[in-house]
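Lecture notes, continued. The same structure-token format from the folding unit now serves as the input rather than the output. Read the line below as a description of shape only.
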């Protein structure tokens, strides 16, 4: 299975697990499995909850690894992309840099495993040039993030004015805080496509202003 297809299948499975765990009356992603008196909750299937939480953790880890492989292949694609120099009156004729057949074949084999295709000849592949710096690895139902369209597994390309650099988590928190009650433009990579969302940080019944958790990638 190509990496892009595998990642999409994993995101679908993660979303299904989150939906089941976060159903009304459910335990959520990290809620207690015991009641206020210290006894196991009788309203939930505790073994099943533990199994699904463990599976979700495994999927998150594998998702991050696959995402890294895809990003590496995207960078490879850009590093070998041929460039053409336009002809000018000073030059005797146009110059064009092309890849050797061996290089194209090697790159093609690598990129096809990631869901991309490469053919010999001029390449004009439309890919997202930004590199994701964070991934939504937890999101609460009815949260501002969910209402704004963010989904589990979304890879953040840009959040307001934040799109890379140092101290990213602190800057994400500061960006949300400084825009409380105001719509923030969020660009994410979802199933290989760029998606632009509008998320409004605000106080709600849950924790934080967004109700989601970001993990650096």
């Amino acid at each position: 299975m190509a990496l892009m297809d595998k990642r999409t299948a994993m995101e679908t499975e993660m979303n299904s697990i989150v939906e089941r765990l976060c159903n009304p009356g459910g335990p959520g992603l990290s809620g207690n499995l015991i009641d206020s008196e210290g006894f196991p909750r009788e309203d939930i299937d505790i073994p099943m909850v533990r199994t699904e939480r463990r599976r979700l953790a495994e999927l998150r880890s594998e998702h991050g690894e696959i995402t890294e492989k895809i990003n590496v292949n995207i960078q490879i694609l850009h590093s070998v992309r041929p460039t053409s120099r336009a002809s000018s009156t000073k030059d005797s004729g146009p110059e064009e840099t092309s890849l050797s057949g061996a290089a194209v074949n090697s790159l093609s084999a690598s990129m096809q495993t990631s869901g991309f295709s490469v053919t010999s000849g001029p390449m004009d592949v439309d890919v997202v040039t930004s590199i994701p710096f964070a991934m939504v690895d937890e999101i609460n139902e009815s949260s501002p993030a969910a209402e704004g369209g963010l989904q589990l597994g979304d890879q953040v390309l840009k959040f307001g004015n934040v799109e890379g650099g140092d101290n990213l988590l602190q800057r994400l928190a500061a960006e949300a805080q400084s825009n409380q009650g105001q719509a923030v433009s969020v660009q994410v990579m979802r199933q290989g496509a760029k998606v632009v969302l509008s998320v409004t940080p605000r106080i709600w019944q849950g924790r934080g202003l967004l109700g989601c958790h970001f993990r650096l990638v």
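Point for the exam: The radius of gyration is 22 Å.
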